[in-house]
Amino acid sequence: xxxxxxxxxxxxxxxxxxxxxxxxLRGVDLEVPAGQFLxxxxxxxxxxSTLFHIIGGLTPPTSGTVRVADQDLAALTDSGRTNLRKKxxxxxxQKFNLLPNxxxxxxxxxxxxxxxTANGNDQEFEKVLELLGISRRLNHKxxxxxxxxxxxxxxxxxxxxxPAILLADEPTGNLDTENSQAVLTLLRDLNNRLGQTILMxxxxxxxxxxxxxxxxxxxxxxxx
Amino acid sequence: xxxxxxxxxxxxxxxRSMLSILLIGVPVTLxxxxxxxxxxxxxxxxxxxxxVGADIIVRAPGTSMLSFSGxxxxxxxxxxxxxxxxxxxxxxxxxxxxxxxLEIVTGIDVDAFNKxxxxxxxxxxxxxxxxxxxxxxxxxxxxxxxHAGDTTELLNRPWHVAGVxxxxxxxxxxxxxxxxxxxxxxxxxxxQVYLKVDDPKNIxxxxxxxxxxxxxxxxxxxxxxxxxxxxxxxxPGLRPFINVIVGIAVIIxxxxxxxxxxxxxxxxxxEIGILKSLGAxxxxxxxxxxxxxxFLGFGGTALGILLSFATRAxxxxxxxxxxxxxxxxxxxxxxxLIAVGAALLGGLYPGLTAARQDPIEALAYE
Lengths: 224, 366
Ligand SMILES: Nc1ncnc2c1ncn2[C@@H]1O[C@H](COP(=O)(O)OP(=O)(O)O)[C@@H](O)[C@H]1O
Ligand SMILES: [Mg+2]
Fold this sequence. Notes:
A: 224 residues, alpha/beta, 7 helices, 29% strand, globular, B: alpha+beta, 13 helices, 12 strands, binds adenosine-5'-diphosphate
């Protein structure tokens, strides 16, 4: 078996909202080999985003084993998770989530600065920007970029620090068909050319076919 | 990078930023104006004391060197002191508070006073001629908006402004001493005697011989000593007053920054979530908020300093005689430290709130 970059057994996540406990994940098992482009589909509320938030270190697991890029997430402290976000994962969100006051270039530079790898010019990354087709839009603020352009900037920002894993939560959810197609093709390309491990949540079965493999989530569990 | 984030944030909400800077600037101005006023009043009074041209001052037992009113000394003291060894000139004057803000009328023996001080420089009009003549200095004339030949009300009666003189000699409002004594029922009584000695080297000698003759209870001192005594700490109540104002200023600056940064943090909840998703540490988030608070603090200091020039200009127009305001650059760093310190403190709570925010909730924030 290929070496898993993500290895999850019996993962559970309970949210406490007031006196009510919400079981968002009820025993997830998942193995993702390095270099795979995995699509995750499933109805709303089935726990897809929660799974990403745990893999990406935004919130700790309630129970179960989660290994991401050779780290045991159950054992990580708050600052350990901060480090995971800084070095090992990159997020792409449905709502793009660019910093509105900064230009596209500065949005990417912030991520670099935070990771502490703000070295001069990066030839390889210049090519990635070419690939993403945003080289000429870098001096614009998000408000003057189209949705498709904003999402491509967000992707650039997510991978600028060469994370082991790219987590894309409904990256085409706010895009029209044409832009969706462009972004999906891009992700496909990044996976092919750079060997980037990608996990993508999507509602759209057609979008899911861009991945190497598709898993389904329902009621807080993964079914194949 | 942090400075870029901060500057873009400040630019993005220009109204909030400007208001915060203005509100921090106001207490800075308050401090600088107050300090400038005390300093200005003290410098002004020192200048006028020097303008008398005396070497030694003699006051009555039991009176403070800095009291402004009352005439407890007998007038016969003047000729007696004039004959003292090494004393060249002696002249008695009488002070009387005219009721207004720091308005003091001084009764002088015109001939002796002129001899000691070198005489007035008349900018308008002339010296006393009529029984209702009064002489005032330029600042007081400006404050009262009167010129030579006009009539002005003082001590409940009209006076004819005989002359307007250059400022810097003892007082701003002058009457012949006899007239002031009669008016205030202080016939043959004076407030103090000014002495000029033959050689400055003899000042200590004269002071000690006067003390041994008149008694130690007489406040007798060289003019330079009197002038050096005139400080913020010697004006009763001024130091506590300054402290209270500085305290209020600190509280205002603190509250303003705290509120402003708290608003900023709320408005930027989502952005903080984004930064956290990129791996920003708590310290990084705190730094951004504190850096912005620091920026507001410095901006407020600069604005406050500018505004203190404006208050000086305003005071110079409306009350040039009573409230001369000095610009005291030594206090700029102090006021700045207070503003910046209050700003940092005010930014601390919102900054910690931001740093502790749950990234998932922050990202979901609309
Ligand atoms: N931060 C949270 N606090 C409380 N409940 C949450 C939180 N995030 C998600 N949930 C709940 O967990 C369940 C799964 O949500 P989510 O992971 O967002 O599903 P999906 O992304 O598949 O739509 C839902 O019932 C949702 O209401
Ligand atoms: Mg979701």
